[in-house]
Design a protein that fits this description.
binds 2'deoxy-thymidine-5'-diphospho-alpha-D-glucose; Rossmann fold; alpha/beta; dTDP-glucose 4,6-dehydratase; UDP-galactose 4-epimerase, domain 1; dTDP-glucose 4,6-dehydratase activity; 12 helices
Length: about 350
């Protein structure tokens, strides 16, 4: 099978490419990635010379480029996206370009070139805040951040393309993923590195917001099952049931890094912060026989250990653009922390 992976230099895309090359000796991968701030060739340095792997730098919105890559491609897996909620609050436009227009461009190309299937990676955030219970695949979309609104729009385009043109697309909604190569703007890698450096960790609001967590390997296994055995036109939720308040994760990371609770700094809450997500992922288990294999505690320990062992990966990232973003976002969060 020849797979076009878009956004393959990001955290999840790179883990997926490595997973495919390791687990399917016949798979061929083209990785189309724009190399935005979160795309990093170092994420795939270990497979860069694999003859079954090819990297192409470019934008999913570049229709001519996308068209030129399609001949011979059996499947497209779309990881390309702007993903960070805080950045979408600061500058939403890039989110619309990647997460809405980019999806349309890929769908059009899949249709035009008769590609057998496309898997579009999306998020539980399209369902918005879930006060109680769980959201299943049919729950209404209620996105509440510029990021989740852009992802919801992309998901709607997938559905519309399937219904209107029969484009063979599958949409996945995943809970929060974490693990090796996670860009250190997200909660787990950011807090891990701050704690390893002996710095404080900025907990938004009261820290009682709940997220559901999946280790990257389990997510790769889920996408693999959906790609190979899922039904086109369908939607699959990908979750583990492991729902943890942020403050509890913070305390686990403090323990794993040998720090103490004086490193916790409560700061202003994220505007529009969703309080809780909870996915019902029974369909994926029932229909495709998938189940998570790595518990949250095990995955968290493995993640912290990976960051401990891979300073050469994260040190160059925490410079330039990253520091500029970090300083400007957290300056505002800290300035207003009296309001917490
Ligand atoms: O739910 C899936 C989503 O998970 C993905 O669709 C998004 O692309 C991904 O960014 C992630 O979104 P979150 O907003 O949940 O992830 P983040 O790591 O930014 O935040 C996780 C929780 O931690 C959230 O409740 C906000 C809180 N947080 C985050 C940061 C960066 C803090 O308290 N302090 C922080 O400094």
């Amino acid at each position: 099978m020849k797979i076009l992976v878009t956004g393959g230099c990001g955290f999840m895309g790179s883990n997926f490419i490595r997973f495919q090359l390791q687990n399917d000796p016949t798979v061929e991968i083209i990785n189309l990635d724009k190399l935005t701030y979160a795309g990093n060739l170092a994420n795939l340095a270990d497979v860069a010379d694999n003859p079954r792997y090819r990297f192409v730098r470019g934008d999913i919105n570049d229709q001519a480029l996308v068209d030129s890559l399609m001949p011979g491609v059996d499947a497209v897996v779309n990881y390309a996206a702007e993903t960070h909620v805080d950045r979408s609050i600061m500058e939403p436009r890039a989110f619309l370009e990647a997460n809405v227009m980019g999806v349309q461009t890929l769908l059009d190309a899949v249709r035009k070139h008769n590609v057998s299937r496309m898997v579009h990676i999306s998020t539980d955030e399209v369902f918005g805040h879930v006060e109680e219970g769980e959201t299943d695949e049919d729950a209404p979309f209620r996105p509440r951040s510029p990021y989740s609104a852009s992802k919801a729009a992309g998901d709607h385009l997938c559905h519309a393309h399937f219904v209107t043109y029969g484009t063979p697309v599958i949409v996945t909604h995943s809970v929060n993923y974490y693990g090796p190569y996670h860009f250190p703007e997200k909660l787990i890698p950011l807090f891990t590195l701050n704690l390893m450096d002996g710095k404080k960790v900025p907990v938004y609001g009261d820290g009682m917001q709940v997220r559901e967590w999946i280790f990257t390997e389990d997510h790769c296994r889920a996408i693999d099952a959906i790609l190979r055995r899922g039904t086109v036109g369908e939607v699959y939720n990908i979750g583990t049931g492991e729902r943890v308040p942020n403050i509890e994760i913070t305390k686990k990371l403090i323990a794993l890094t040998g720090r103490d609770e004086s490193h916790i700094e409560y700061v202003k809450d994220r505007p529009g912060h969703d309080r809780r997500y909870a996915l019902n992922s029974e369909k994926l288990r029932r229909e495709l026989g998938w189940a998570p294999q790595v518990s949250f505690d095990e995955g968290l320990a493995r993640t912290v250990e990976w960051f401990r062992q891979n300073q050469a990966w994260w040190e160059p990232i925490r410079t330039g653009e990253y520091l500029k973003y970090y300083d400007s976002w957290y300056r505002d969060q800290l300035d207003a922390s009296d309001n917490v």
